[in-house]
Design goal:
alpha/beta; 3 domains; Rossmann fold; disordered C terminus; 19 helices; globular; six-stranded mixed β-sheet
Length: 539
């Protein structure tokens, strides 16, 4: 089936999300829409899937104009979509989820799932999905849940499958399996629209690439083009994708976490007996699929969690039980994972956001009075130092782009002497050019002798920044390994496989990110001694 988007424009009030976009997806083609977060890719696909009505333009299927009033119309036309956040009911079985919305009944009004089970089994056998129709979705690994979403589309005879950032929640191994599935679907004649900002995956699987920047198509590319060329198209200027980072020179270990447990209101141990330490002048990266305790770990350090057991020592001072303000005053800088919710007040000025944690301290305040002149003077300095693109520090922070908002948060946290710097998802939703800048600032803080902890679900970012890598799975520390450990080993550990087993199965060191043996080999041995591995393979 041939699919064409012609002149698609979508406005939300004064915001122009899509600007006269033309895309043609040929039958049996993997067509990638490449662009930074916020470029308009998902909006365009929501128009195609009938979730949004286009302001202008038309959709053609096999050269005939069509109009979709909702996803049901799109599915009837042969278009299926797998959303970045799965649309599954956890307590339902696979068959019940697949049948949802297109249920058939048998005598007495009972749900008839036999036909659905048969179709699931046929598709599973054809593509090697290995999905049990009667399994509860909540018991399935994330990668298998994604296959259920694909099965839902294929059961409805989708000829074009839209995959919106499909690898965001997958381990490297699950990502490789998904790319293989995409190739199989293509070989059976299914067209795929692959939405992504990850250059490695785009190059690995795409037949053709359409690059979108700020709601417009800026060009097409081939998967054989260099990552540098693709990144330049995404950003609109030349960028350096390789971080120039000297080996770490670690000093004394001033930050120590021992037997840390965080208990959720439902009694679940979201962090379960974790122990590690960080030396001055090194970066420890916490790797893992989103939702394995990373958020609760950082919140426990900051004093944002109530039910915390164990010890968190900074310069031999216990942080457990201290208020957030006490922790910040102890010299902890913190970049939260969601800048719009926890990092900024969008209606406050940039200048005010740059002193949110010090507005009541000299030189910004004297007694109960704040000094607007000093606040603005500080803003001018920080804006220049961190290359925040804005005409004035008096503008509301919410008017900035994502990358510039992140620079404001980073500037605030790095503008005072620190004893520990924590950055959670430091470049999420940030353009390639800003990533380059922010990574350099993180390394510069390390080189000043600060212990640095990075939490990231982007494995490339972890491997780029880390001097050591701690892998977390279901709240437990699987192990701590040297920088340069191979992607396959890290991927297995992210799936909960113990460090020694992962190393035996994987291929050891990644030559693209060589290890620094003088420090990290010893650290790895220490990590093995303090880790609490949890086994269990994921499909």
């Amino acid at each position: 089936m041939k699919l064409e988007l012609r002149g698609i424009t979508k406005r939300f009030g004064s915001l122009l999300a899509n600007d006269h976009i033309d895309v043609v997806v040929e039958p049996g083609q993997i067509h990638c829409l490449l662009g930074e977060n916020g470029a308009g890719k998902s909006t365009l696909m929501n128009v195609l899937y009938g979730l949004y009505e286009p302001t202008e333009g038309e959709i053609l299927v096999d050269d005939k104009p069509v109009s979709f009033r909702g996803p049901g119309d799109a599915m009837a036309a042969g278009i299926g979509m797998v959303h970045q956040h799965f649309m599954l009911v956890p307590v339902f079985t696979v068959a019940e989820n697949v049948a949802l919305g297109a249920e058939s009944t048998k005598a007495g009004g009972f749900l008839n799932l036999d036909d659905t089970r048969r179709k699931i089994q046929e598709i599973s056998d054809r593509y090697g999905f290995d999905v049990d129709p009667d399994a509860l979705v909540e018991d399935l690994p994330v990668g298998v849940q994604q296959r259920v979403e694909i099965i839902k589309a294929l059961v409805r005879d989708a000829k074009v499958l839209i995959l919106d950032e499909p690898t965001a929640v997958l381990t490297p191994q699950e990502t490789d399996e998904l790319l293989d599935i995409m190739r199989q679907l293509k070989s059976h004649g299914t067209s795929i629209v692959f939405i992504s900002h990850k250059l490695r995956e785009v190059k690995a699987v795409s037949d053709t690439i359409t690059v979108i920047r700020r709601g417009k198509v800026v060009g097409t590319a081939n998967p054989g083009d260099s990552t540098t060329a693709l990144a330049s198209m995404m950003v609109g200027r030349a960028v350096n994708l390789t971080l120039d980072k000297a080996p770490a020179k670690p000093l004394e270990k001033t930050f120590k976490v021992k037997d840390l447990t965080v208990i959720a209101p439902n009694g679940q141990h979201t962090v379960d007996g974790i122990s590690f330490d960080i030396a001055r002048g090194e970066i420890l990266a916490i790797a893992g699929v989103q939702g394995n305790g990373q958020t609760e770990l950082t919140e426990a350090i900051l004093g944002l969690q109530d039910r915390v057991h164990g010890s968190i020592l900074l310069d031999n001072v216990e942080l457990v039980g201290r208020s957030v303000k006490d922790v910040l005053n102890a010299g902890v800088g913190f970049v939260p994972e969601d800048r719009s919710v926890d990092g900024l007040i969008g209606t406050f000025s940039i200048a005010e956001n740059l002193v949110l944690d010090r507005y009541d301290q000299p030189p910004f305040a004297k007694g109960i009075s704040m000094s607007p002149a000093k606040v603005l003077e500080n803003a001018k300095s920080r804006i220049d130092e961190f290359d925040v693109r804005t005409p004035s520090g008096l503008l509301a922070a919410g008017t900035l782009s994502g990358g510039n908002q992140q620079k404001v948060v980073m500037a605030r946290e790095l503008s005072r002497p620190l004893r520990l710097f924590i950055a959670s998802q430091p470049t999420r939703g940030v353009d390639v050019g800003s990533i380059e800048f922010l990574h350099k600032r993180i390394v510069a803080e390390r080189d000043q002798g600060t212990p640095v902890m990075i939490i990231s679900t982007e494995l490339d970012e972890v491997m780029e920044l880390a001097d050591r890598i701690a892998v977390i799975y279901k709240g437990k520390l699987v192990g701590i390994v040297p920088a340069g450990t191979g992607r396959d080993v890290l991927g297995l550990m992210m799936a909960g496989i113990p460090q020694e087993d992962a190393a035996a199965t994987g291929h050891g060191v990644d030559t693209a990110h060589p290890a620094q043996p003088a420090h990290t080999d010893a650290a790895a041995a220490e990590g093995r001694a303090t880790s609490s591995p949890e086994g269990g393979h994921r499909a």
